[in-house]
Design brief:
The longest helix has 6 residues. This protein is elongated. A two-stranded antiparallel ribbon has the order 1-2. The relative contact order is 0.26. It contains three helices and two strands. It is an alpha+beta fold.
Length: about 55
């Protein structure tokens, strides 16, 4: 998914705590922001294994 997003001009910025939702922002918008996201674009640091259904 991240490779396709990069090809389309998007960058991974966040994966929520249960690992079910990933958030991408257009690279040109990110380049114009004054803030940077922690581990922006680093799938190895951002990915979380899904925890849904676990008790």
């Amino acid at each position: 998914m991240t490779r396709l997003a990069r090809k389309k001009g998007y960058e991974l910025v966040y994966v929520e705590s249960t690992g079910t939702n990933a958030f991408y922002i257009k690279k040109d918008i990110l380049d114009n922001l004054k803030v940077k996201f922690y581990n922006q674009g680093n799938i190895n640091q951002l990915y979380r294994y899904p925890t849904f259904g676990k008790k």
